[in-house]
Specification:
The complex is a heterodimer. By secondary structure, chain A is an alpha/beta fold. Chain A is built from ten helices and 13 strands. By secondary structure, chain B is mainly alpha-helical. Chain B is 79% helix and 0% strand. Classes of the chains: A alpha/beta, B mainly alpha.
Chain lengths: 285, 306
């Protein structure tokens, strides 16, 4: 089985609310998958289920394990950085490294020191003395020094300035990622990770509305920027979404060949943010 | 398993520095008090010389009793502080990690919830007493050294008066037994505090003590009985470590008093470890502690659900 994560009909109910509603997908080894969705769409719940932090219905296996029942074994092979999983403020950097070295069989303290040596983080510093950006640097250094197979990132760069964010993704690709490792990431700042991703999943109201590789997107989705009168013709082809840009109409199509759209305006592949809006808003329209 | 526990317990000591700092502060205060006390007493020049002369002439046994009382009264300060420390530690142990949102980080490590909660229980029941005991012993030594210097300055024989008479080994063994037995005896409270700390969203101290106050009142008004209050009272009132039956009438029994008088120089001789280990109350208490602890593990594991 080459799937790192395999979900079949996974649901999670809170009372009568279906936070995750009958979701099925696979994430293969060596991929970087973006999980995109509006607030309250079920992203975090789904990630929690993958991390074994919450139980769910349906069948979910991560690295061949049941995440909720085999969390300890799973955590030897999974790392996660989340906005809500902050490092304890009272701990010293050196204490943190010592602790992880003692309990984590796949952690290399040497590697962590190497990575931290490139930053301004002092081993004797307490986490509360570090800036938010440095705490994230520290967390990423730790995670990079763990030889784990799946890394889950939940809004990892929330509240960081642009320099730290660029550096974060640069280090993620440069130091962490290789073909044996897999990354699952959620963020609101989609534009920043667009070029990183190999796969993308959209989630809305607990349901998966898109699950595709980035390579497939240009074949499946096309956007046409049309004048008002071209737009009338284009509408015949059932666009999934339409929006106004500078007095022109931008129509998004799914499963329509580019040749069919010739002469209707400027043709291009939608970027992820626009596609997301089209899929989510188009579904409710 | 053992390595994980060592790492987890060290973690507790890093986070809760008061476990080490509090007894050290008390030790320093005790040492300072013994210096100022002796300086103050020195003002009564002749009376002191006479007292020292008297002390040199009474029997070994009487000197040992006096020093034993001194050592025990120092220890009792620490024991009191140790219990306060344990209450605050256990109420914070599973609450702070939720308050500062680090719980998800800890849970991202390959450690089970049971291992984590057990490390906190071990810290409360074993580590806090042992740290306290070590600092008690050091404080005893410091106070005895201060006393020797003072006795020496007054021209008396410190070796003879202090060191030859102090029943240190006996006293320490008794103290260690007591500080280890006490948390075991009070373990239902420790388990309860851990559960409250894992469960409550705010003010663990209030939530922990409210039922202890309200339940007896409810029981009294609804059922007219007071079994719950008595269970708590017996638990906190008397530990069955000193022979005889557990109960507050220890000092009313003549044989207990006689035994105490005879064994004044040996704290160990009044300790009945076998009786303690065989008392059903101890095991019942440990069972209750186990149930509360298991509930705390469960709460920590399923907390992410809501």
């Amino acid at each position: 089985m080459s799937s790192v994560v395999s979900a079949r009909n996974v649901s999670k109910l809170f009372g009568n609310v279906r936070a995750v509603d009958n979701v099925s997908f696979d994430i293969e080894k060596g991929r970087i998958t973006g999980l995109i969705g509006p607030n309250g769409a079920g992203k975090t719940t789904l990630l929690k289920a993958v991390l074994g932090l919450t139980d769910c219905q349906g069948s979910l296996t991560v690295l061949g394990l049941d995440p909720f029942r085999q969390r300890k074994e799973l955590m030897q092979n999974i790392c996660f950085i989340a906005d809500v999983a902050v490092l304890p403020r009272w701990i010293r950097v050196s204490q943190l490294l010592e602790f992880i070295e003692r309990i984590h069989p796949r952690f290399s303290r040497k590697r962590a020191n190497e990575l931290l040596g490139r930053t301004k983080i002092m081993p004797s510093a307490r986490v509360k003395e570090l800036s938010k950006g440095m705490v994230t640097q520290l967390h990423l250094s730790i995670v990079t020094a763990i030889d784990a197979r799946l890394l889950v990132l939940d809004e990892p760069t929330l509240g960081l300035d642009i320099i730290f964010r660029k550096e974060f993704y640069g280090n993620l690709l440069g130091d962490y990622f290789d073909e044996d490792r897999t990354i699952l990431i959620t963020t609101h700042q989609v534009e920043e990770i667009e070029n990183l991703l190999t796969d993308i999943m959209f989630i809305n109201d607990g349901q998966l509305v898109l699950d595709a590789s980035m390579d497939e997107l240009p074949d499946r989705y096309v956007e046409v920027m049309a004048s008002a009168e071209q737009a009338d013709r284009a509408r015949q082809l059932n666009p999934i979404f339409e929006r106004d840009v500078f007095g022109k109409k931008v129509l998004t199509f799914e499963g329509i060949g580019r040749e069919q759209l010739q002469g209707l305006g400027e043709i291009r592949t939608p970027d992820i943010a626009d596609l997301f809006v089209a899929k989510v808003k188009g579904a409710t329209a | 398993m053992i390595n994980t526990q060592i790492a987890l317990v060290r973690r507790e000591l890093w986070e809760h520095r008061s476990i080490i700092v509090t007894p050290i502060v008390i030790g320093v205060i005790v040492a300072m008090m013994s210096v100022t006390g002796q300086v103050a007493v020195s003002a009564m020049d002749h009376a002191v010389d006479i007292a020292l002369l008297g002390a040199s002439n009474v029997g070994e046994h009487e000197r040992a009793i006096a020093l034993n009382v001194l050592l025990i009264s120092i220890s009792s300060l620490f024991v009191l502080a140790m219990w306060v420390l344990t209450v605050f530690y256990t109420l914070d142990a599973l609450y702070a990690e939720r308050k500062d949102k680090s719980i998800l980080f800890w849970r991202s490590m390959p450690v089970t919830d049971a291992e984590t909660v057990i490390s906190k229980l071990l810290t409360a029941i074993v580590v806090i007493p042992i740290v306290s005991f070590a600092i008690i012993a050091v404080t005893h030594l410091v106070v005895l050294v201060i006393s020797s210097v003072w006795v020496g300055i007054r021209g008396a024989n410190a070796w003879h008066l202090v060191w030859q008479s102090a029943p240190l080994a006996d006293n320490w063994l008794a103290t260690l037994t007591f500080v280890l037995a006490l948390p075991l005896w009070l373990s239902p409270f420790i388990g309860w505090f851990l559960l409250v700390s894992a469960y409550t969203r705010r003010s663990p101290l209030l939530i922990a003590f409210l039922p202890i106050i309200i339940l007896p009142m409810l029981e009294r008004s609804l059922l007219g009985t007071s079994a719950f209050a008595e269970a708590i009272f017996v638990r906190t009132g008397a530990i069955p470590l000193f022979g005889g039956r557990a109960g507050s009438d220890f000092f009313e029994k003549e044989e207990n008093l006689r035994r105490l008088a005879q064994s004044g120089d040996s704290a160990l001789s009044i300790i009945d470890l076998g009786g303690f280990l065989l008392s059903p109350g101890l095991w019942l208490g440990l069972l209750v502690c186990g149930l509360f602890t298991a509930a705390a593990v469960y709460v920590r594991r399923y907390r992410g659900e809501s």
